[in-house]
Amino acid sequence: MPTIYPIRLYGDPVLRGKARPVSNLDAPLRVPGFAASSLREVARNMLETMYEARGVGLAAPQVGLPVRMFVAAEYADDEDENEGKETPLRSRVLRELVIVNPVLEVINRRKDTDYQEGCLSIPGIYEEGVARDRAVRLRYQDLSGAVQVIEAEDYLARVFQHEFDHLEGRLFLDRLPPAVTETHRKALAGMQRDAKAYLRRLGVADRGL
């Protein structure tokens, strides 16, 4: 059975650090609070965690693992992944993507602000106006270590840029005027408290590992 990882919330320091490359794809990885697992198992668990949270992408730092990896899914209905919550997300997946050690190249610098953007680490907050490049190219390793190249535009390009930002310690609210963050100050403060409480619990649990 796949494991569902807790998603780290706004205020957790792991979301602000720059993730390190995965130097050995055969070495086990340890998500804090869980036993060490293979990269493939961690990727599968991240995908299941993403589906459980009704998301379109999830970066490794969001589960407390500061490595350069993220997962994503293309859905049949693009940005409507949160609609119809009675329908399992997996039933609408066109393809799953596991992206290791990505290098992002912009291939169309025309800015797109049309989509509403949110983040699984900042639940309940959605904003329009996040400027993203229209099209990008990712060069990355797949789970076997082979180098792959994928090009994306519009919504999928936005997903790739959002998740790549996580690997750089950047959140989507950082790309908006500070006044936007200020309007969510109360909700964000609550997330920060929850993040600290989880880290305290995790510290107690980890001493027994």
From TrEMBL:
CDD domains: Pep_deformylase (cd00487). It catalyses: N-terminal N-formyl-L-methionyl-[peptide] + H2O = N-terminal L-methionyl-[peptide] + formate. GO terms for molecular function: metal ion binding; peptide deformylase activity. The active site is at residue 163. InterPro entries: Peptide_deformylase, Peptide_deformylase_sf. GO terms for biological process: translation. Removes the formyl group from the N-terminal Met of newly synthesized proteins. Requires at least a dipeptide for an efficient rate of reaction. N-terminal L-methionine is a prerequisite for activity but the enzyme has broad specificity at other positions. Belongs to the polypeptide deformylase family. This is Peptide deformylase. It comes from Deinococcus peraridilitoris (strain DSM 19664 / LMG 22246 / CIP 109416 / KR-200).
